[in-house]
Amino acid sequence: MFKQDKEIPVFVFMGFLEAGKTRFASQTLIDRDFTQGEPTLLLATEEGIEEYDEDELKKRNISLVYLEEEDINTEKLLDLQDEYKPDQVIIEYNGMWQLQKLFDIRVPKGWTIVQVITLVDATTFTVYNNNMKSLMAEHIQNADMVIFNRCTEETDINTLRMAVKTLNRRSQIVFENVNGQAQIDNGEIEIPYDLNADIVEIEDDDFGIFYIDASDNVNNYIDKVVKFKGQVYKAPQYKGKAFVPGRFAMTCCAEDITFLGFKCVTMETPNLKDKDWVTVTAKVKCEYYPEFEGDGPVLYAQKIEKASKPDEEVVYF
Fold first, then answer.
1. Given pLDDT bands bounded at 50, 70 and 90, which one contains residue 285?
2. What's the rounded Cα separation, in Å, for the pair 186 and 192?
3. N or C: which end of the chain has fewer CB atoms below 10 A?
4. pLDDT (tens digit, 9 = 90+) per residue, 133-180?
């Protein structure tokens, strides 16, 4: 058996059928000569419209192997390692398979997943996201980079950016147009409220955007006075000196509803009950607290008023 002492980097390309995985992999491996002649094992788990040029792959010391879902197991991967003795592994992963299956198996010693890239067809994103939200969410949640290809002038960049930021703030985003020109996204979410207003009023439908943007760009909110509606959560660790006004939000599926909110310092907590709806007017500060594992927005209440619940209680991203 082949003994492996060194680390073998594993790169995973994922996305739904016709998302452009094969084209991207071919460009990376052949046109850009990513492997530089090192022995490389390319594992493809579906055959799409585009096909690999196996002759070109062989010229670059790349071995192509097609796998079925039942082949994603430790024994099969060990056999492939013994047979091909790769210095690196590329996996084009079937978008309809659970990615967790790949993460859960005991990969051969030395194999380390160093990058997961998700390819998304911008023209079909909304359809897939509406009909297979949990799968799409998994693709984004585990990605180090999300590439939206086939973008046009009509593509709603802000909506795509928001979809990624909601699920995975660490992921890099790339937008590629129909001509193959790519641009790394350095933009911020377009916010629908006026941050320069004396009181920044957050409409009920905009709470999700407020939460994401204030979390990512807290410096833009320091000393701003914000006003929004939320439910009361009296966190026991605050010992009656603060509470969390927020909203329940669904990021990928009904089973993934979570409560989003910021710590709000006030002495009025004895008069508040969990799940009450309130309108909070508060000044934003940036402070360290454990929930953010670093610095984040902390609210200092100026006014807390009882409120009726919004038309839609759950925030949808």
1. very high
2. 19
3. N
4. 888 888 998 899 999 999 999 999 988 998 898 888 889 999 999 888
Rg of the chain over all Cα atoms, to the nearest angstrom: 24
Closest of 267, 202, 200, 262 to residue 232, by C-alpha:
262
- Give the pTM: 0.75
Q: Name the residue range of residue 262's domain.
A: 200-316
**What CATH number should be reported for the domain holding residue 311?**
2.40.50.140
Give the integer Cα–Cα distance in Å for 266 and 222: 18
| The amino acid at 36 | Q
Residue position matching structure tokens 């329940």 = 248
As a whole number of angstroms, the distance between CA 23 and CA 49 comes to 10
Other C-beta atoms lying within 10 Å of the C-beta of residue 300: 15
Q: What's the rounded Cα separation, in Å, for the pair 172 and 143?
A: 8
Query: Which run of H or E residues covers position 134?
Result: helix 133-141
Retrieve residue 216's tokens. Answer: 């990512």
DSSP for 88-115?
Answer: EEEEEEETTS-HHHHHHS-PPTTEEEEE
Structural domain contains residue 195: no
